[in-house]
Structures are given as structure tokens and as C-alpha cells.
Automatic annotation (TrEMBL):
Transmembrane segments: none annotated. InterPro entries: MttB-like_sf, MTTB_MeTrfase. This is Methyltransferase. Its EC number is 2.1.1.-. Coiled coil: none annotated. Belongs to the trimethylamine methyltransferase family. Residues 1-27 are annotated as: Disordered. GO terms for molecular function: methyltransferase activity. GO terms for biological process: methanogenesis; methylation. It comes from Paracoccus zhejiangensis. The keyword rRNA-binding does not apply. It comes from the Bacteria. Pfam families: MTTB.
Length: 518
């Protein structure tokens, strides 16, 4: 096992004796956690310097001549006017160079702390942090099919995330629990992340008051002073593309920026509908929107941590449905990564994107395309890294564990090629010589446990064995994996006083207002 992975084994009482110990070890629950990825490979750069300069100049022109709308937010308009922008109603026109200058105070890298310090993540630089699916109102599994998500489903996905070796982050709205009132569900969701996982998590953004609750609950978990001085949340602030910043999202951003908590400033682009059909045109709009959003965060609080976001997909011009894993989306993801690095900001994009209704071949192709492009484009924070189905409408149990398994490949690819003396394997080549085989060589015996990435889901057995075991497809194997993981789940330790204080806060806040499902 490499240094980047730690293994925690939990088992019941063990009898003395070597045989009993070995049997106990085989049947114990092993929970493995992998450190966030640090790339040892170069990023793929699709734009040359001239192309980037053109896109950057065009984005500045958009901000100065066309402008952006900050709607239902008089305070934002006042801050922009004080900063030197031209404010006309809700339209803000930003002089060339102003937004870029304001962005300079945002950190290029920051630590998001987890309640278990071993799970802290570094966002930015050469690092890649993987977080699960976010936002679907529906869930799907083999047993129940497609249905509205519940808080029980939400808790299950948090447990799966906690148990998944290659996931570094618990995420946010892993599904939308529709059986809990809209005005109260953020409390239950945050409580689940805080108690069922010890990985980092995301805060609520659906109202400024819910963002404030997220900060208050985090202070219960971490302590007031710690939250004031450190980043413990990374939250998603979507821009209403094209070029519109609504009061709800900006209200949440303001809460997080003032509290020194991180926000992903992310255009939500469906090419051809919310941005031009061309790659360069879309990159221009993405950059303009990010510049304005990040600059505004720095007007709220200089030095507030932010992430350059780019959620981009194309559209099927026949049906109007979004499409995923396409070459155009790949080009935009790669190009936006270059623009983010030029700004000196952490970058969020890519994920397990697919338009398929089932965890099938279409889902696998589209997801693989998006995940691999995300790695090569230099993404630092990958939301939706596992579980996404049906264009983001569905959180799939089976696809969650299928995707989470494949994330191990990103870890291995990012590590690069081992060129150490052991990696060169000259001793093995000499030992085996012409016509031999390496199965019994000393080098193979010393390295076989970690030489190759190993799946925890896919089937590589001989046909006869596969047939005898029921000729199970990947989704069926994944369903069995889900059942096993949930059956073996054990909640991470939490200070009883903090657990009680969190439960009390949630109960008091929920009792203070009537239920609302609107």
C-alpha cells in the first residue's frame, strides 16, 4: 500500500492464535481512505497563447460594453458602483481590467478542513479533490427503480461516500430529499454530512438564511474561532447564464465570503441555449461570468476563497436535451482550465456526466470521457464525480459505486510513471531472461499487490465461473456492492456533546417555523 492511502480495519473481538487472527482479518470490515490526488503528470493544453489572449480580450469587452445583471440585490449594485463600475439599473458594466484586478486577492490554493484532520483537502495547485453527485430530485436503484428521493436515500448516499475509498469529499445535496419541507431540508442534509461522515462537506445555497445556518452548524462542529479562521465549507454558487447573477445565489455567496468560507463561482452552460454554439464563444462567456463573480466575492471580502467553475455541456438540436461526454464539452473543459490557471484560481469542472437513463454502456462511455478530460484539464475540485444519471436528474445507487470504483483509475494515472530503480525493473529483466515468465520473479513477488489498479466492482472471472454465479452484469454487481457497503457502514466517532448540540440546533430551527414545500 502506498503512502497516499491509509487503511482502517474495524473488527469484533479476536481469539488468540494465528489461525483465528487470520480468519478475523479476512472477515473484518476494512475501510480504506485515499488522500486527495496530487498530479505528477502535465495538463493537456488545447489553446495556444494567441487564442487565450483573444478570449481574455473578448471577455473584458463583454464586461465593459454588454455588462452583467445583478438582480434583486441593491447592496451588490452599491459595491460595484463604489468599485468604479458603471451601474445602470441592475446592469453592471465593468471597465476593462477592473474585474481581473479584483480577482488577484483570491487565493490560488486553500485548505478545506474536515472534522477528521486526516481527511483535510488542498484545493488548487496540482491537486484534484473528488466529490459526489449534487442536486438530483430523483434516485434510482435496481430494486425500486426511479423514484423521488427521500432523506433516507440522502443518508444512504452520505454513508456510501464515507465508505468509498477514492472519494475525498462528502459533497452537498447528494440528492434532494423531497419528503422533508423545502425550508427545513438543508438542516437535515447538513446534519447527515456532519454526523455520518468525517470528510469535508458543502453548505446550503438556496437562501442566504440557509447559508447562515450552515455557518452556525459548522461552528458547533468545529468551534467558533476555528471557523472564523479556517475554511470548513466549499459551496456551489451557480450563475444564471447568460450574464445574470440572481439575488438568492449572491446572497448565499455574501454569507460565505464574509465568513471566509469557499464558494465555487460556476456558470451553468448548456451550449446553444445559454451560451453560443462555438467553443471560443462559450469560453468567452464563461470567463466573463467567472471574472464578474469572483471579483464580486472579493468586493464582499478580500481574500475570500473561491473556485473558478465551469459546468458546460452541449445540446441535442433535435430534442433540446443536454448531451454529455461530447468533444465540444471536452474542448471547453480543457480551455477553461487554461484560463483558470492564467487567473491563478482553483478550477472546478467535469464529473461522471451522462444523459443515459440507466447505468449502461451509454452512461459508461459518456462518464469515462468526462472523467478523463477532467483529469487532463487540471480540474482541482470535481463535483459530480460519482452517481450522476439522466442528465443530473437522478442519483443512482449502482452508478455511484461504479463511478467511485473508476475514480481509482484517476489516482493511478495522475501518479505518472515510476522511473525509480524499482520501476525500471532491470533486475527482473535480468532474472527472467529470454523465453521465461515473470510470475515467479522476485520483482513480481515484491510488487504484485500494488502493481496494478484493482477494481472493486467489475468482473474478470472466466466465463464458466461468471455463468455459474448467475451471469451478472455490472449493474447487478454494483447493486450487491451497495448492499454490502451499507451493511458494513460504521459511523465515524463524534464528540457526544457536539452531536447533542447539532441535534438540538436542528430541532430548534425546524420547530421555529411552519413547514413549507414551496
Amino acid at each position: 500500500m502506498d503512502d497516499a492511502t491509509e487503511r482502517t480495519a474495524r473488527a469484533g473481538g479476536r481469539r488468540s492464535g494465528g489461525g483465528a487472527t487470520r480468519r478475523a482479518e479476512r472477515t473484518a470490515t476494512h475501510i480504506e481512505f485515499s488522500r486527495f490526488i496530487t498530479r505528477n503528470i502535465p495538463n493537456l493544453e488545447i489553446l495556444n497563447d494567441e487564442a487565450m489572449e483573444i478570449i481574455e480580450a473578448n471577455a473584458e469587452t463583454v464586461l465593459q460594453e454588454i455588462g452583467v445583471n445583478f438582480v434583486d440585490n441593491p447592496g451588490a449594485l452599491r459595491l460595484w458602483k463604489e468599485a468604479g463600475a458603471d451601474v445602470d439599473g441592475e446592469r453592471v458594466r465593468i471597465p476593462k481590467g477592473l474585474a481581473r484586478q479584483l480577482c488577484k486577492t483570491a487565493p490560488s490554493q486553500f485548505t478545506q478542513h474536515a472534522r477528521n484532520p486526516d481527511r483535510n483537502v488542498e484545493i488548487g495547485g496540482k491537486n484534484l479533490v473528488l466529490a459526489p453527485v449534487y442536486g438530483p430530485p430523483f434516485v434510482r436503484d435496481q430494486a425500486g427503480g426511479r423514484r423521488y428521493a427521500t432523506i433516507a436515500d440522502f443518508r444512504n448516499f452520505v454513508k456510501l461516500g464515507q465508505m468509498s475509498k477514492w472519494l475525498h469529499h462528502s459533497g452537498g445535496t447528494v440528492c434532494e430529499p423531497t419528503d422533508v419541507p423545502v425550508n427545513k431540508r438543508h438542516l437535515d442534509m447538513l446534519h447527515a454530512h456532519m454526523t455520518l461522515s468525517d470528510k469535508p462537506y458543502m453548505g446550503s445555497v438556496t437562501e442566504a438564511s440557509r447559508a447562515a445556518d450552515s455557518v452556525e452548524m459548522s461552528k458547533i462542529l468545529f468551534g467558533d474561532d476555528f471557523v472564523d479562521q479556517n475554511t470548513v465549507m466549499t459551496s456551489l454558487i451557480n450563475i444564471n447564464s447568460p450574464l445574470t447573477f440572481d439575488g438568492i445565489m449572491m446572497g448565499a455567496l455574501e454569507v460565505y465570503a464574509k465568513a471566509n468560507q469557499a464558494a465555487i463561482i460556476s456558470p451553468f452552460i448548456v451550449g446553444g441555449a445559454m451560451a453560443p454554439v462555438s467553443v471560443a464563444g462559450t469560453l468567452t462567456q464563461v470567463l466573463a461570468e467567472v471574472l464578474a463573480g469572483v471579483a464580486y466575492s472579493q468586493l464582499v471580502r478580500k481574500g475570500a476563497p473561491v473556485i473558478f467553475g465551469a459546468f458546460v455541456t452541449s445540446i441535442d438540436m433535435n430534442s433540446g436535451a443536454p448531451t454529455f461526454g461530447t468533444p465540444e464539452a471536452a474542448q471547453i473543459t480543457l480551455g477553461a482550465g487554461q484560463l483558470a490557471r492564467r487567473l491563478g484560481l482553483p478550477y472546478r469542472s467535469a464529473g461522471s456526466f451522462c444523459g443515459s437513463k440507466l447505468p449502461d454502456a451509454q452512461a459508461a462511455y459518456e462518464t469515462a470521457n468526462s472523467l478523463n478530460i477532467g483529469l487532463m484539464s487540471g480540474v482541482n475540485f470535481m463535483l459530480h464525480a460519482c452517481g450522476w444519471l439522466e442528465g443530473g436528474l437522478v442519483s443512482s445507487y449502482e452508478k455511484f459505486v461504479m463511478d467511485a470504483d473508476q475514480l481509482g483509475i484517476l489516482h493511478r494515472l495522475a501518479a505518472g510513471v515510476d522511473i525509480s530503480e524499482n520501476g525500471q525493473a532491470m533486475g527482473a529483466i535480468r532474472e527472467v531472461g529470454p523465453g521465461g515468465h515473470y510470475l515467479g520473479s522476485a520483482h513480481t513477488q515484491a510488487n504484485f499487490k500494488e502493481a496494478f489498479w484493482r477494481t472493486g466492482v467489475l468482473d474478470y472471472k472466466p466465463y464458466e465461473t461468471w455463468e455459474e454465479e448467475g451471469a451478472r452484469d455490472t449493474a447487478t454487481l454494483a447493486a450487491l456492492k451497495v448492499k454490502k457497503m451499507l451493511g458494513e457502514y460504521q459511523a465515524p466517532d463524534l464528540d457526544p456533546a457536539k452531536a447533542e448540540a447539532l441535534a438540538d440546533y436542528v430541532a430548534r430551527k425546524k420547530a421555529a417555523v411552519p413547514d413549507s414545500f414551496m
